[in-house]
Design brief:
Elements: H1 4-21, H2 31-58, H3 68-79, H4 83-86, H5 91-103, H6 109-129, H7 153-160
Helix pairs in contact: 1-2, 1-7, 2-5, 2-6
């Protein structure tokens, strides 16, 4: 099983990647920016956990499914995508592709509590910014671009895979 301390480290790496790739200053965050960061963080943390659990379930001594190979293997076995084509996918396409699998992810214990905390953070900032929705243009309500800095699959494998 995955260690919650490792998941928290991954979340910190993801958040740093989001801040860097979207040029967000830590001290100048509005509630709307915090909502966008919380949503993206929630998505990517869940995706990292899903890929690591998939790897743990499907790895063999002959095919350990290290790092991105686990992602491409999951894309092939779950969705029938050719492994060579899987390498061409953008992160935004991968997030959409895995959305239903990640959304239905069943976790337990402290990992579930951490994910629940992320969900509650999104709900909190959604309620705080609700009055802004009328004056905020739709293109500014969400982070539309995905950057590979936001998806630290190598670090996730190293930190989350330490228990295998």
């Amino acid at each position: 099983m995955v260690n919650v301390d490792s998941v928290i480290k991954i979340a910190d790496i993801i958040k740093a990647g989001i801040m860097k790739s979207h040029n967000i200053e830590p001290e100048n965050q509005t509630d709307l920016t915090k909502l966008k960061i919380s949503r993206r963080l929630n998505q990517i943390v869940r995706l990292c956990i899903f890929i690591e659990l998939y790897r743990q379930d499907n790895a063999t001594p002959f095919e350990p499914l290290l790092e991105r190979k686990a992602l491409h293997h999951a894309m092939h076995t779950l969705f029938g995508i050719d492994p060579l084509k899987a390498e061409q996918y953008q992160l935004s396409d991968i997030v959409v592709l895995f959305h239903s699998k990640v959304k239905d992810l069943q976790l337990s214990g402290s990992i579930k509590d951490f994910i629940t905390e992320l969900d509650e953070r999104v709900e909190f900032f959604t309620s705080v910014t609700r009055s802004l929705w009328r004056v905020t243009a739709p293109e500014h309500r969400y982070m539309h671009e995905y950057h590979w800095d936001e998806f630290p699959i190598e670090e996730a494998h190293r930190l989350l895979g330490e228990l295998i």
